[in-house]
Write a structure and sequence with these properties.
Radius of gyration: 18 Å
CATH class: Alpha Beta
Order of helices and strands: EEEHEHEEEHEHEHEHHHEEEHHE
Distance between the termini: 36 Å
Largest sheet: 10 strands, mixed
Structural class: alpha/beta
Strand order of the largest sheet: 5-4-1-8-9-10-11-12-13-14
CATH superfamily: Ribokinase
Number of helices: 10
Amino acid sequence: MILTLTANPSIDRTVTLAGRLERGAVQRAESVISQAGGKGVNISRAAVAAGVPTTAVLPASPDDPFVLELAAGGIPCDPVPAGPPRVNLTISEPDGTTTKLNSPGPTATPEVLDALAGRLRHHAAGSAWVVLAGSLPPGAGANWYADLVADLASGPARVAVDTSDAPLAALVAALPTAQPQLLKPNCHELASVAGGDADDLEADPLAAAAAARTLVDAGVEAVLATLGARGAVLVTRAGAWHATPPPVEVVSTVGAGDSSLFGYLLGDLRRQDPAHRLALAVAYGSAAAGLPGTTIPNPSQVRAELVPVRELHLTLGG
């Protein structure tokens, strides 16, 4: 089972424009889509579509429309009573450019945070993977994810983390005490904790892999770094690989990183080797980029066989 934690869930509202976004102008939207979302929720949604058992832990009232939407979609959910989820707005332009406006979300009380951690520990006993994903709500300390990773270390489940900013920095600072089996940064997040320029890392997979290896050397078992249109690199203690996506008409990049993370986990559950796990990750992310809003692809839309993977050779100490 894949257990997901979305500590700061959101209603993802995507506005699709007919033309380029113009600041200060009045523009008509072609469509508006609202979906219950958040990184962990997106991964659980992908798991359901692929027939993989999952449970989504999140803060929300059990009778909140957010939770009811997940239930209607067949997504098993264990909500901790809390205030209503935030609303995140994405503006999508015809060329695939997306502009995101994310709200902070309601403040999480110590009682809510303790309850989330307790639910996580309970479900983790029967899970193959625990995914800690997304931003933290106001009220949670930056080291909350790091504390959870350390707390889960004694259990059987492996832990994947996808976060940014202060929570990511706190997790890396806590290595190797808080040691996730998988870390999934994008190029900007990777640069923030491993050094270098984000644009340079995105343009140069070898440089991205070298940066990712510093995290592996610090204690992370595997780093899956997504590089936008350049695909992704995977670095483990056994080696490094780069995969490029097949051609796709980009509709919305929202949720593409979450889909990539699920693709990797799916490949791991299938006991595939690192190169095939990376190919499946990139195929899932590419398929998501071709879908509107935060739509998560189903397996029939994923073409891992079209993703070329090459091994990267990193020099010692580089």
